[in-house]
Amino acid sequence: MKTCTRCKETKSLEHFTKDKNAKDGFAIYCKPCRSTMRKESYPRYRDKAVAKSKEYREAHPEKVASAKKRCYEAKKDEYLAKSKMRYIENREHTLEQTAKYRAKNRAKIRQRHARYYAENREIIIARQAEYQKRESERINKYSREYVKKRRKTDKLYALQTNMRGRFKFELAKRGETKWLKVNDYLGCSWLELRAYLEARFTNGMSWDNYGDWHVDHIVPLAIAETKEHLIELCHHTNLQPLWEFDNISKGARLPDNIPEHLKHIAEQKTA
After folding, report:
1. Of the ranges 2-6, 37-41, 111-115, which one carries the lowest mean pLDDT score?
2. Which domain of life is it from (predicted)?
3. Which residue ranges make up each domain of the chain?
4. 48, exposed or middle or buried, with CB in 10 Å at 0-12, 13-18, 19+?
């Protein structure tokens, strides 16, 4: 037992911090009194204390990190509870400050993430694989709902998914497993493709009724025997908007002027 020289209360030694300079090895003030005294005196010595603390952290980074880790592990539940409560009480301010910090330190954050990933790559991959396996049903359901909803509201996204899906399907039919980027086969960006198709709309066509009309390959992909020929036929100059009924009726029928059309595609690819 020991009596605090400030509050005069007699308490067990666990209520006192250790002091190697004291005869009994414990400080003369109890922990609550010591905390109160520090709060009262801190404003007067703040600058000095901050500078000293910074100097120590810079001189002993590994020791500081180790001490923080031990402290966190010893009081993990307490820290998490406090952190959660602090976030709830200051949510808007926290989000605002976080957004400002990220905008100001994008490069620094990317470097930190890249370094962390490089140092923990195997652990991260294993953790992601475990999570995806455990939550596969929920993830797949969310993905299906997201794609379905976005396809209804974002017609450019619907066009992208349709075109990519068709191209991958045709590649797979020919035993190809390596996918290509859009510019490697379309010969233009998605925005340029949208403008190209719009310029060829017939009466009644718009992006609002995309689905009632299809993106048709003038020279059908079915005639492509090689990967190179398939890529050639996927060029945007071989595309046209066609009403669903007309596209289904057309099927894999070849156009009458196929030699001229193939020549035009080749010329556009080399232009």
Report:
1. 37-41
2. Bacteria
3. 177-268
4. exposed
